């Protein structure tokens, strides 16, 4: 496999009207937006954790030499908004959008004597 080349994906997508469209993706992901991770927990303190994880992902990916990552200040405008990732990607001019959520639960260990 040669370095610097992406993979080619071909598939069929059903649109809202039920018509099938053939698409081809052959370009490397060279730009990315990491949307703020949603807090799926009932604990309000987990909001800080989800923001911190989002910021950490952005900072880590920003170190990659051939990847343009949208800054935190720009993507955090979408925090708490149920926006379509495709629309966000178009608005920010990126080829990929990363979304996710943070769910934390408490685990208790039961000790049997």
Tell me about this structure:
- The protein has 113 residues and is α/β, with parallel strands linked by helices.
- The protein has a domain of 73 residues.
- Helices cover 26% and strands 22% of the residues.
- The chain is built from 3 helices and 7 strands.
- The protein has a 3-stranded parallel β-sheet. Strands 1-2 form a two-stranded antiparallel sheet. Strands 4-7 form a two-stranded parallel sheet.
- The radius of gyration is 18 Å and the shape is globular.
Sum up the structure in keywords.
alpha/beta; globular; 3 helices; 3-stranded parallel beta sheet; single chain; 113 residues; two-stranded antiparallel ribbon; disordered N terminus
What is shown here, in short?
This protein has 113 residues and is α/β, with parallel strands linked by helices.
């Amino acid at each position: 496999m040669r370095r610097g080349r992406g993979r080619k994906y071909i598939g069929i997508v059903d649109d809202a009207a039920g018509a099938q469209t053939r698409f081809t993706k052959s370009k490397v992901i060279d730009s990315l937006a990491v949307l703020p991770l949603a807090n799926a927990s009932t604990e309000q303190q987990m909001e800080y954790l989800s923001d911190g994880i989002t910021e950490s992902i952005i900072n880590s990916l920003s170190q990659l030499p051939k990847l343009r990552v949208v800054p935190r200040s720009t993507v955090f405008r979408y925090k708490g908004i149920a926006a379509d990732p495709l629309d966000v990607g178009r608005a920010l001019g990126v080829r990929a959008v990363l979304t996710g959520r943070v769910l934390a639960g408490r685990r208790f260990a039961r000790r049997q004597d």
